[in-house]
Amino acid sequence: FRAQVERGLERPRRGRYEQAELAFRGALEMNPRDDQLLHLVGVAQLWQGHAEDAAASVRRAISLTRRKADYHNTLGCALQQIGQVDEAIACFGRAFALVPGFANARFNCGVALLQARRYAEAKKLFGDSFASNPDDVEALHGLCGAHRVAEEKAPADELRRRTSARR
């Protein structure tokens, strides 16, 4: 069992996502109610571009334990890829509600908010993230991008200038 999981974890480092999925599925046959393996199957499916399958796998993992922020983040990524942006935003929100410092889920949520044309919410989310951590380059890029997409070029340029001067 452990060797099967380790093989699955090694494969993605080499870009072998299909083999990783097969290894995780092999381990899952030995323990079909293992939420972590279900999540890893979903991650491997997502890496391969099979977002609908990934969403189904991760939903099964979440049905076994709802308290894992990374599961909600992965589900959000899968849903966003298949165009279910509002559901994705809700998933990202659950992820950073469980782990408030989950920067990746906050960034993903901001990107999804931009995709949904909810610019004010995206600017607030990226702005709050950047204000709490001025070294968060992704939050800075997200905030600048939110201003740019909302056709507010001047605030984006000013933010970049101030940040560059401060560093």
Description:
It is built from ten helices and no strands. The chain is mostly helical. Helix 6 runs antiparallel to helix 7 (103-115). The longest helix has 14 residues, at 17-30. The termini are far apart.
- Looking at the structure, what is the overall shape? elongated
Beta-strand proportion? under 5%
Helix content bin: over 70%
Alpha carbon gap, first and last residue? 49 Å
Unreliable stretches, pLDDT < 50, 5 or more residues? Answer: none
Rg from alpha-carbon coordinates: 18 Å
List the helices and strands and how they pair.
Layout: H1 2-10, H2 17-30, H3 35-47, H4 51-64, H5 69-81, H6 85-98, H7 103-115, H8 119-132, H9 137-149, H10 153-166
Helix pairs in contact: 1-2, 2-3, 3-4, 3-5, 4-5, 5-6, 5-7, 6-7, 7-8, 7-9, 8-9, 9-10
